[in-house]
Amino acid sequence: MRMERDYKDIVAELKKTFPKDTVKFRSDNHRPYIPNQVYTDRVESATESRWNLEIKELEINVPHRFVKSIVQVQIDAHFRDGYGFAVIPGDPSKEPSNINTAVDKAVNEAFLTALDSYQMGWRDLAPYKMNDWAGNPALKHLLEQASPGEQTVVSQPHMRTHRQCLVCGKALTEDEWDLLGQVPNLNRDKMTYCFEHLPNHLKRKIDKAVLQQFEKKNSDA
User: Fold this and answer.
1) What is the arithmetic mean of pLDDT over 111-127?
2) Which residues of 192-221 are buried (b: 16+ CB within 10 A; e: fewer)?
């Protein structure tokens, strides 16, 4: 069946920036991520529901307590494969009772891996990956421009949030709030500091490139 949208246009739609606050942070390690449902909704919208997800391979290894999956995402006549892995939790000496949970996790990871090859969410996650792939000069454009045909979002670093510094009571700027998200294992809902009162031992935990980018961006504040 012929797609109503050209495949090139679909890929451009998949790459577009998501709405503000789409990126979430995991409770255990505070790593940034975009929920699976958000990606699914984007694919549904971009392809007008003309896409398919197929599980190509699923290995459930009970003795070694893991699940491995390979899925294939099909859009029009084009395919992308994704790979996922999940540990089956529980006591190794006992029969596992939550295999289905591990299967779901492995399949979901494989699905996201396949969509990652379309660069979905890259522009949204790039500011939080400066010490990883986003810090590479070849990917600098992800931080500087929006998707083709999409209105550029102008950053307003001094816009205030409703969160206040524990020390001085001043409302945090959006940049200060985002910077707190770069401190590993920090509960920023409780430990809220403006940059001036952010303890030095916490500043030292922030990637140097991210910290330098923040200071440069806010030098005229």
Assistant:
1) 90
2) bbbbeebeeebeeebbeebbebbeeeeeee
Res. 212 pLDDT band, cuts 50 70 90: confident
pTM summary value: 0.61
SS3 13: helix
Give the position of tokens 């996922």.
84
More confident position, 156 or 5 = 5
- pLDDT surpassing 50 at residue 81: yes
- Residue written as token pair 């459930």: 60
Query: Residue-wise over 34-47: b if at least 16 C-beta within 10 A, else e?
Result: beeebbbebbeebb
Look at residue 33 and give its three-state secondary structure.
Answer: strand
Kindly report the backbone phi and psi dihedral angles of residue 92, in degrees, each rounded to the nearest multiple of 5, phi listed first. -60, -25
Higher pLDDT, 52 or 215: 52
Distance between first and last Cα of the chain: 55
Q: Which tokens belong to 172?
A: 């945090």
Beta bridge partners of 59: 68
The C-alpha atoms of residue 44 and residue 5 are separated, in whole angstroms, by: 12
**Quick check: 214 and 182 in contact, CB under 8 A?**
no
